[in-house]
Amino acid sequence: MFNGNGNGLERVRLSGLSKNFAAGREKTTAFRLLHDIVKATDPAPLHARRVVAIEAFSMYTGEVLGLIGENGAGKTTLLKLIAGLYAPSAGSIQREGKVVYFAGLGIGMIQDLTVRENVYLYGAIYGISRSRLESDFEDMLEWAELTDFADAPLRHLSTGMKTRLAFAIATRVEADVLLLDEAFSAGDQRFQNKCDAFVWGRRGGSSAVLVATHNLAFVRRYCTRAIWLHHGLMREEGEPDRVVDSYLDYSKT
After folding, report:
1. What is the C-alpha separation between 168 and 116, in angstroms, rounded?
2. Rg, Å, the chain Cα set
């Protein structure tokens, strides 16, 4: 376990982190490939496009961090780096405990299976035990307001209903680091309120939560710390109201 910050134990530590993606070469076509062979020319070189560059950053237990920034700022890339879905181009990521990444709630569910079958399938994808899924099944359906749909094919549910079901299962995931990428941006106000309550319940707990979101009101109300990412750089970090105000001031210019 890493050292603490006086309030919680360190779960994630980034140091000298950067991630580059190749960019700048024209799309290869059959004609271009033949031309290069006949003319004995090399393809145009690839150029690295830096997406994320963070010198130092840590996450601690009990924190709910809001990650904000315009589209293309690198939020999703940062989450995928922390989750281990991307390898860094440079620097290091140290993690302590189980890391779970949620994006696009419901991906992995199968339309022709029933709600019950999808609960067991989706839960297994995220490492929830069969016994836990069985014992919590009724509670999850009640949370998702799907009590009467247990044996209905998933295809009969609306998009909102599927999202509620997926998030109901997600609330049972036991993670030391929970990464949410606009995971509950869709849904009606009742669903939003339930999601907010779930996140609020994680404050001061044994896990660290990082939420990438465009919902600035959520960041102000529910997050303990905010990070503003701008062109892959951490432009500001700290108390949510201050960071959100800085971001809004910049957006007006």
Report:
1. 13
2. 21
Q: What is the pLDDT along the chain (253 residues), one digit of tens a residue?
A: 555 565 689 999 999 999 998 865 555 566 555 555 555 555 545 567 788 999 999 999 999 999 999 999 999 999 999 999 999 999 999 999 999 998 877 888 999 999 999 999 999 988 999 999 999 999 999 999 999 999 999 999 998 899 889 989 989 999 999 999 987 665 678 888 888 888 899 999 999 999 999 999 999 999 999 999 999 999 999 999 999 999 999 998 8
C-alpha pair distances (Å), 65 with each of 153, 210, 222, 225: 36, 5, 9, 5
| Angstrom distance (rounded) from CA 246 to CA 229 | 12
pTM score: 0.83
227 within 8 A of 212, measured Cβ to Cβ: no
Q: Which token pair is 244?
A: 């959100």
| Three-point CA angle 199, 245, 251, nearest 5° | 110
Whole-number Å distance between alpha carbons of 31 and 8? 59
Among candidates 211, 201, 203, 148, which has minimal Cα distance to 172?
201
Domain annotation for the chain: domains and CATH numbers:
10-252 (3.40.50.300)
Q: What is the rounded distance in angstroms from the CA atom of residue 196 to the CA atom of residue 184?
A: 9
Residue found by looking up tokens 């210019």 in the block? 253
Residue type, 163: T
Tokens of 149: 């749909």
**C-beta of residue 244 within 8 angstroms of C-beta of residue 216:** yes
Beta carbons of 101 and 83 less than 8 angstroms apart: yes
- Cα–Cα distance between 39 and 125 in angstroms, integer? 51
